[in-house]
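[Q] Does anyone have a clean structure-token version of this?
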Amino acid sequence: MGSSADDIRIRMAAFQWLEAQERIHGDSLPRRLLETGFMFEGGPVRLVGPQGIFKPYQMALPISITTIWNGRYDDGFEGSDLLRYHYRGSDPDHRDNVGLREAMRLGVPLIYFNGFVPGRCIAAWPVYIVGDDRGALAFSVQVDARPDLSRRLRVADGRRGVDELPADDPGTNARRAYITATVRVRLHQQAFHERVMRAYQHQCALCRLRHEELLDAAHIIPDGEPDSEPIVPNGLALCKLHHAAFDQYFFGIRPDLTVEVSGAILREEDGPMLRHGLQGIHGQLIHRPSRPSDRPAPWFLERRYDRFRQRVEGGLR
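[A] Here you go.
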């Protein structure tokens, strides 16, 4: 077990390493990469292990907490600005729970990994344990500004950087609530994208394009509407051309999964992209996910198709 000084140095090295990995891999990090970790003064530092609360052998306190959702959408957020993270087991005094409690007492930053799909994780750091509910067997967690960004933020008085504030300063609490809320949105968006891509085998449901840089996870009922849900049955994998055309109601998808291009687009004369990319999809069936539970929900398609028909009958397309 290392000293407290070693502990801090390893945490800062872990934060820097994660930033570098995000530049390489994007927001979605391979879990195997985290299990391997990075080298620190001649030895490997792993960031995750078999259990959700993980402490490398070199450190005095845990470095990370991990949630595996197993396909469930309920990610443990309470409201928009607080994460509930459950104890290991039912013993409040299990050493892992004690370690997180000590991290809370000392204000030690950790890393939060969300395993939103098998083999992939989203990382948020630094996170802090801000509450301990023994009755519910759960900790409360919030995310704070990353060290390299914190100097750019300012509290309301416009004078002090957030990294200069005491932990109990009202500005700290407000900042953490805001950042936690943004991480929650980021997590949901990334999880929706990855699950839709996997369901459609990383190809456009219309033209079968496989270049993921050119693919989007499109909502059938648009994101932001009260009854829109970030679930696979409300999603379609579409290339950027077909996503934009779908959003503009150039075509609709009937509940039987048949594509219907608007008459105005069918009558238009342009170039090969219009003929093959839009006019050519009229009457075809979309590519369906293999799992029935991942296929577009008929009630979502019906509502979206009704809007398409209203546009067409209204003379807009």
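[Q] Thanks! Anything notable?
[A] Residues 4-196 form one domain.
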